[in-house]
Amino acid sequence: MKAYAMLGLNQTGWIEKDRPVCGPLDAILRPVALAPCTSDVHTVWEGAIGDRHDLVLGHEGVGEVVEVGELVKDFKVGDICIMPAITPDWSSGEAQDGYPQHSGGMLGGWKFSNIKDGVFAEFIHVNDADGNLALLPPEIPPETGAMLSDMVPTGLHASELAKVRYGDDVVVVGIGPVGLMVVRGAVLAGAARLFAVGTRQNCIDVALAYGATDILSYKEGPIYEQVLDMTNGKGVDKVLIAGGDVDTFDEAIRMLKPGGAIGNVNYLGSGDYIKIPREEWGVGMGHKSINAGLMLGGRRRMERLASMVVHGRIDPSLLITHRFEGFEHIEDAIMLMKDKPPELIKPVVSIKY
Ligand code: NDP
Ligand code: ZN
Asked: What separation in angstroms does the CA of 201 have from each of 98, 193, 206?
């Protein structure tokens, strides 16, 4: 089969691979809609998870089931399914302890385009199909459905990490496609004032549509100074991070109230350490917590979030700025993600049979 892969650090290209083999609990799908992720860019061009050779990229998409293992109960050939970016082993100890995304070891639930071939292939292997696939509701077009693999579940996880409450004042750092979903999630979780940090006009428009109340630019001085100025020096209850770098945590601590929390879903592609400013952290006694995590994955999670889309709570179609038709356009889509032209939020490739 044909697939689009990381050939090595800083290198991508088309390769031929064997069609994956379906185990008794697994499913094989062919792609219907695929999207590249900024994480693919960190992986290839920043070497963030180390070198990989001929690793098929991609972990976001909707697919059609073409084969199921003999022990799969709930899916059949022809089903159109959301393929979650995170596909845990649900019988692992970590999953039973409540952290399926770390099944088998840290980040072990993140298999596609990390520890096994991703979804940018003519055939895609999904482990534990009953636990990991979710039927795409017929009301959701496949291109929008592809936003449910990663953008929606990751974005909403930021508020879960920081435990956003009704009436919280919240800063969302970064309003790319992930940060925009963080904004929507925080609004649904009850944010009162919501400062969104970013500069691209397209993204600003969607942030406002999703419920941001104030827009800040990190290019106009430190974010924490702007936030402290606008809150009479008090700061905010929660800082949700979906952009920036290792230094963003320093700023986040400075703009949090005592008792506040950070929820980070940013993938830190470079830098060795995160610094915490001692005094602003209450010299160790400020009750300012840092929570950072990979989204959960799994079928029920996908079904619940898809239901929120069906019932109009979230409209992830606003993220899609570039649409391609045909599997061969995967390369164009990922290069757009790498180059980040100002008008880009998220590209999607649809595949017709
Ligand atoms: P984008 O690159 O599209 O967006 C990044 C955002 O951060 C932009 O709004 C950008 O502003 C802003 N930004 C850039 N530099 C700074 C800075 N110094 N200070 C503050 N803001 C800054 O990324 P995505 O939305 O696609 O993804 C966000 C992150 O989430 C990525 O690191 C991605 O890998 C990660 N991710 C994590 C997952 C998880 O499960 N935890 C899953 C999927 C993705 P501007 O408007 O100027 O461009
Ligand atoms: Zn992703």
From this structure: 39, 20, 9
What DSSP character marks residue 233? T
pTM, entire model = 0.97
Q: Which string of DSSP letters, residue by residue, matches 30-60?
A: EEEEEE--HHHHHHHHS-TT---SSEE---E
Q: Is 199 in the pocket of ligand 1 (CB under 6 A)?
A: yes
Structure confidence by residue, pLDDT tens digits, 283-335: 999 999 999 999 999 999 999 999 999 999 999 999 999 999 999 999 999 99
**Residue 79, both tokens:** 């089903």
Closest to 239 measured CA to CA, from 286, 285, 179, 283: 179
CB atoms near residue 57 (< 10 Å): 27
pLDDT digits (tens, 9 = 90+) for 91-115: 999 999 999 999 999 999 999 999 9
User: 197: Cβ below 6 Å to ligand 1?
Assistant: yes
Instruction: Report the distance separating Cα 353 and Cα 346, nearest Å.
Output: 23
Ligand 1 within 6 A of CB of 265: yes
Q: How many residues does the chain have?
A: 353
